[in-house]
Design goal:
Elements lengths: L2 H4 L5 H21 L4 H13 L6 H48 L7 H6 L5 H25 L1 H35 L1 H31 L7 E3 L8 H6 L6 E3 L12
Helix pairs in contact: 2-4, 2-6, 2-7, 3-7, 4-6, 4-7
């Protein structure tokens, strides 16, 4: 193994800058994410209703998307730093072995001997490998110094991102219920179910009366609406709807509904 095949030494300064930027954004998200779910939801609720109605839902989910991007960024930089640390440790072991192999060979004692000898490049090669070992050792020390803080922050960032998601979903569900409550759709649906309940009670009374007059149970079928499979939706829309199917309670074959 030679210096050329091992690759360049990791730029720990550049990688440290990337770790620092990702860590700073992560700490900012953790600090502004309240630990109590109720407080976080209340804060997000006030922010949500201060937005323009046409932009509320998009901006709401954008809050979680931003948190997820911060999480992914820190996770990616940590992974890059870990891989770089593994590479440097492996390359350092190879460089040290190469340096020891070079040191075991007889080397010229003076510059004149080096120039006149049969191995004029041996000293320069040994010196280059020694410098490489020092650089890789320094890079390893720096990476080992930089990694602990982001790694400790990662678990806190994951928890904060989860709390943001829970708050976003809570506000979205509350907003949906509120829109239904304020619209006429929910009231119309409730009124329709009340009418159906009254009609069902009247029909039930008629059935009970006929059961009393005939002296035997009156067979009444159930109404089953079969849910079509997704591939059949288009064909269903293009054709006339089928009538509800009557299923007798005494039929042994159970009803199967395909979702």
């Amino acid at each position: 193994m030679t210096i050329a095949t091992r690759g360049a030494v990791t730029n720990a300064i550049l990688l440290g800058q990337q770790l620092g930027a990702a860590l700073g954004a992560s700490r900012a998200l953790i600090d502004r994410t309240l630990s109590k779910p109720a407080d976080l939801v209340e804060e997000l609720r006030r922010w949500y209703y201060n937005q323009h109605p046409s932009e509320r839902d998009r901006l709401l989910w954008l809050r979680f998307v931003e948190a997820k991007v911060i999480h992914a960024r820190l996770e990616n930089v940590i992974e890059v730093a870990r891989e770089a640390l593994d590479i440097e440790r492996h390359a350092l072991a190879e460089a040290q072995a190469e340096r020891e192999a070079l040191a075991s060979r007889p080397l010229p004692m003076t510059v004149e001997e080096e120039v006149s000898g049969t191995r004029p490049k041996a000293v320069r090669h040994y010196q280059a490998v020694s410098v490489e070992c020092q650089q890789r050792e320094a890079a390893i020390v720096e990476l080992e110094r930089l990694l602990p803080a982001p790694e400790l922050t990662m678990s806190q960032l994951t928890e904060a991102t989860t709390r943001v998601l829970e708050a976003v979903v809570t506000i979205e569900r509350e907003a949906f219920v509120r829109r239904l409550r304020e619209s006429d759709e929910l009231e119309q649906l409730r009124s329709r179910f009340q009418r159906l309940r009254v009609e069902a009670s009247a029909h039930g009374a008629e059935i009970d009366e006929w059961r009393r007059q005939t002296g035997r149970p009156v067979r009444t079928p159930r109404i089953a609406f079969l849910w079509p499979s997704p591939p059949a939706w288009q064909a269903l829309l293009d054709s006339s709807p089928e009538c509800p199917k009557l299923v007798w309670d005494d039929e042994s074959r159970p009803l199967s509904v395909e979702l």
